[in-house]
Amino acid sequence: MTTPVLLVIGAGPGVSGSLARLYAEEGYDVGLVGVDTEVLAELTAQLGESGVRVEAATVDITDTEAARNAIGLLASAFGRIDVLHFNPSAFREKDPLELSVAELLEDVALGVGGLLTAVQAARPFMPEGARVTATGSMAADKPWNRAASLGVQKAGLRNLVRSLDTTLEPHGIRATTVTVRGALSAEGPFSPDRVAEALRAAARQDVASWEVEVAYDG
């Protein structure tokens, strides 16, 4: 199987959907993993108009066993994963005095732990030259105290991506995160389409000057 494949974790109508459309327009087959069956069905139909193969799995990435099985089945169906993109995060409006330890760990399990699950499940199907990308945020450096867990997630995500890149590099696979330094909006430089373009560009960096964190300032 030689057709390249994009696997999107946390697929939805925003940045991840825009990224899936970008790759589909280039002829990539697309695997979608998300929690909303209706959203996945709509995105599958849209991508199918490009004439590519699209497969979707409805699963909670924090359900480790179910997620690993679902990703394994998708990867087996395609035969390969060339780009794995990780998008999920949890927004919980609680400051550090309101946020419980259980809530913090629940959010980190989604926004950081989910990447671990996804890469471990997909790794056997990732050939040399494959890439892992993740949607980062300025919250990693400048967290809003009213959403304290989000900053922890994005800082942890960036840290984990660094470890993944170091681990995967000897196998010819690289990982990077794009730190979006602005608020997402329907239009303009921080629209989903523009951020998706930045993510695709990050995946295609020259390995000689590879950056594990790419800042996107719009």
TrEMBL record:
The keyword Endoplasmic reticulum does not apply. It comes from the Bacteria. InterPro entries: NAD(P)-bd_dom_sf (IPR036291), SDR_fam (IPR002347). The keyword Oxidoreductase applies. Keywords: Oxidoreductase. Belongs to the short-chain dehydrogenases/reductases (SDR) family. This is NAD(P)-dependent dehydrogenase (Short-subunit alcohol dehydrogenase family).
